[in-house]
Design a protein that fits this description.
With 57 residues, the chain is an all-beta fold. The protein contains no helices and five strands. The relative contact order is 0.22.
Length: 57
């Protein structure tokens, strides 16, 4: 993956390890680790939950 900063022509190559876990029929967890030269530089964890039919946002 390449990430570009605004106003800069530089690019950076990073390794991405992305996993998704289905916890139950309504909950999904997405966990992503990013590393550069074998050193972890960031993590992102997202939780997705399905709303019941007819529920307002």
């Amino acid at each position: 993956m390449f990430q570009k900063r605004s106003g800069d022509d530089s690019t950076y190559e990073m390794s991405i390890d992305d996993w998704m876990y289905l916890m139950d029929e309504d909950t999904l967890i997405n966990r992503t680790s990013m590393s550069k030269l074998g050193v972890e530089v960031g993590q992102v964890t997202l939780f997705f939950r399905r709303q019941a039919a007819g529920a307002s946002q």
